[in-house]
Amino acid sequence: MKKVFQYVAVACFAFALFLVSSTAFAQGRTSLKDSLKTTVAGAKITINYSSPAVDGRTVWGDLVPYDKMWRAGANQATTFITDKDIMVEGKKLAAGKYTLFATPGKDSWKITFNSETGQWGIKRDGTANADPAKNVLEVTVKPKPAPMTERLKYVASANGFSLVWDKLEVPVSIK
């Protein structure tokens, strides 16, 4: 009976160690929910997104492929809300709630505002859920090098907002 107890104790200890180590590993890849709330050009703007970590991975061109539409975050697609009409990169975007998609390129990115919200973002085949007929605005922006940022974040500036992640910043102008 004493031997059985020892085996059970060792098995329980090993199982507990496994749970602790797997949970710690998984937390490195957990994409945390985050949001940016700011006022730009008199409009209250909110961007809701999930913030993935680099976690030693190659982000641009690998984890996030070039020339394919991406949900601009992790998990559910990123949402963009403005309470007033704004000009994004010189083009009008009406007040409302949108899904924000990005199509990264090596030299330029396409930022897409889609009127269908509540999307997951990416289908199992790797394509975006975005219905092109519901794209209300597409603009092209230029990425630029930035200091290393482990977790994806959106930051506000007097000129709009930027997606910042890994060693890249993608500024989007708003007036």
Question: Any key phrases for this structure?
Answer:
175 residues; alpha+beta; 2 domains; 6-stranded antiparallel beta sheet; two-stranded antiparallel sheet; 1 helix; 10 strands; 16% helix
User: Overall mean pLDDT score?
Assistant: 86
- The run of helices and strands is HEEEEEEEEEE
Tally of helical segments: 1
Assign an overall shape.
globular
Count of discrete domains? 2
Main beta sheet strand tally, sense and closure: 6 strands, antiparallel
Strand order of the largest sheet: 1-2-3-6-7-8
Enumerate the spans where pLDDT stays under 50 for 5 or more consecutive residues: 8-27
Strand content: 35-45%
Radius of gyration: 21 Å
The share of residues in helices is: 10-25%
- The total count of strands amounts to 10
State the distance separating the first and last CA atoms: 77 Å
Signal peptide: 1-26
Pfam families: DUF2911 (PF11138)
InterPro entries: DUF2911 (IPR021314)
Keywords: Signal
